[in-house]
Amino acid sequence: MSVLDRFSLKGKVVILTGGAGLYGRGLASDLAGVGATLILASRQKEKLDAVAAEESQKGGKVTAEFLDLGDEDTIVELCKRVSDQFGRIDGLVNNAVLRPMKTLNDDTAAWRQSMLVNADGTFLLSRAAGKVMTQQGSGSIVNIGSTMGMIGPNDYLYEGTDMIGADPTLPPDYFFHKGGMINLTRYFASVYGPNQVRVNCLSPGGFFNNQDPKFLQRYQKMTFLKRMADPTDLGGSVIFLLSDASKYVTGTNLPVDGGYTAK
After folding, report:
1. pTM to 2 decimals?
2. What superfamily in CATH does domain 3-262 come from?
3. Distances (CA, A) of 172 to 105, 183, 201
């Protein structure tokens, strides 16, 4: 097998949670473009159907499935449907995220909702897909974390911008579950490793999304590359971690942040 062939996902069945959002849309295009049989999954199935149609028109093998990460039954059912239809699950990208909290002082119901989807959902889907992968003796799980799971908040970035309201505190739930995702990655890498199933985390930095100019200027100065990420900056690393090119890489967290956390 050539080096380029080892980066190919042709013939691999990959589940991507999300697929229509800021990170997900670019990932859907990139994963379909390197030959994956791609299943997009989220509660917003109509949006995913549109993405699947667009990528299929370009020659990709992309379908959409309903998934509620707050409902264990839909998680188990998704993995069973995919396994029954394709005979295997080769990759899982835990990309979907719910961010109901806006500040530290939000009602605790928002915290619980966040944990139900982002903590419970990630765990349950990794367990369900991992069971299929361990039985077949191969597979790769890629968790999409965040630099906010590696470092604390930097209030300076937001001062004097329109990105925060009267309560200037950033929401704590995202920091909590993205930090936990990194160590859950190590846990599953240890448990699944003997069956040749790899589990890694990828922690993106900030993505450009028409943010306040003050924020943009400050954030960009804090990266080595002096810019925020765009939708094409994440896919290469995810493809690497899903592919045979990384078959001896597991239990790691890869920052994809333009050098933000290295400063």
Report:
1. 0.96
2. NAD(P)-binding Rossmann-like Domain (3.40.50.720)
3. 9, 18, 20
